[in-house]
Structures are given as structure tokens and as C-alpha cells.
Amino acid sequence: MNAATLAASDRERRDIVSGEVMAEERLIRFVPGPDAVVVPDLARKLPGRGVWVAADRASVEAAARKNLFARAAKAKVSAPATLADQVENLLRRRLLAGLGLARKAGEITSGFEKVSKALSSGKAAWLVEAADGAADGRRKLWATARKQPRVPGLIGVFTAAELGLALGAENVIHTAFLAGRAADRWAQDVHRLSGFCPLLPASWREEP
């Protein structure tokens, strides 16, 4: 991990809902837009005075409902009732874009056999499974993953069509994100997304 990444991970901000001070990667930054409506700044780069909220649906909804953005910004700004949905959708798009960039950098492998090999060799940081993929292949790959000393993360929020579009293929069912800095950065957004929606479809939890 380079110095810039270390510095970013060390930065802390105060959540305007709970008052708790926590690392930036556990928060969502918001800034007032040109129309005085707050917008999410997932990359933490937009100009303006930032306001920070814990990365979970309940906190964002509470901040919008209680008008905490205006208080924290000390300005007349408003927040739409759908703000938490906006954050979720932006995080999903950001994660798909991250997969596309990782594919171009050679940090993604797809297809059952290639993913199985990556898992068996311990090179995979994440197993990305299509939400609408067949259970049989997924179960076999997850069984392989669980045998590793360091079990990779598992995410199943995207359809085969969404993964295919992000990765430049027809339909993608099985994908492995190889361990490295890109996977570490991607994981931060995965963890933030987990505060807004389940990372696995409900039906998967009933599987052995």
C-alpha cells in the first residue's frame, strides 16, 4: 500500500447523524449541488464543503428526514427522500466500472474453469457471481473458495447481463477479482454498498 493510500485510510470524519468519528471509507461524503440540493460524492473529490454520513441506508435516510445536511453545512440545502437510493445506485455503477477497469488491467478472470483455478491457487480476493446464475456452478466454486487459508469475499448483486456489459462479454456468470491494490480499493465500495443492500440474494442464504 502506497503512502497516498495509507494517508487516505488514516483520515477520519464525523458522521453528522451519530456524531461518531470514523474512517472516511466507512462514510459517504455529500456536497451541495448548484440547485442547493445535496449530492453524493463517492470519490470525495467534488468542490465545496463536504458533509459526512455513515455508509448505511438508515443513516442517510435519517440525515435527509431530520434536515441534518442543512445544519451541518450551515446553509439552506435540501435532501431528496430518495437520497439513499441514489447512493446505492451510484455505488453499484462504481463497482461495475471498477470491474471493467480491472479487466483491462488483467486483474479479472471469468469463466468457471479459470475462476476455479484462481480460487484453488489462492489468488482470488473476490468471487463475483451473477445473481441470476445457476446454483450448481456457484456452489462448486464457493466450496473451493472456502477451502483456502484466506477465504475470498463473495458478492452477488449484479445480473449476468450487467457483469457482461461491464466486462465486455455476452453474459458473465463467474468472475474472480485477483488480490492486489485494485481489489483492496474495490472492496471499500463493496463494504459501503453492504450498508444499502444485501450483497447476496435472499435465496442464496438457504443453500448449503
Structural write-up:
There is one protein chain. The protein is built from eight helices and nine strands. It is elongated, with a radius of gyration of 19 Å. The chain is an alpha+beta fold. A four-stranded mixed sheet has the order 6-9-7-8, with helices on both faces. A three-stranded antiparallel sheet has the order 4-3-5. Strands 1-2 form a two-stranded antiparallel ribbon. 41% of the residues lie in helices and 17% in strands. β7 (124-129), α6 and β8 (153-155) form a beta-alpha-beta unit.
Concise account of the structure shown:
By secondary structure, the chain is α+β, with helices and mostly antiparallel strands. Helix content is 41%, strand content 17%.
List keywords for this structure.
single chain; 208 residues; alpha+beta; four-stranded mixed beta sheet; three-stranded antiparallel beta sheet; 8 helices; 9 strands; 41% helix; disordered N terminus
Mean pLDDT: 93
Helix content: 40-55%
Distance between the termini: 36 Å
Report the β-strand fraction as a percent range.
Answer: 15-25%
In one word, what is the shape? elongated
Continuous helix count: 8
Radius of gyration: 19 Å
- The helix/strand class is alpha+beta
Low-confidence stretches: 1-7
Q: Numbering strands along the chain, what is their spatial order in the largest sheet?
A: 6-9-7-8
- How many beta-strand segments? 9
Order of helices and strands: HEEEEEHHHEHEHEHEH
How is the main sheet built? 4 strands, mixed
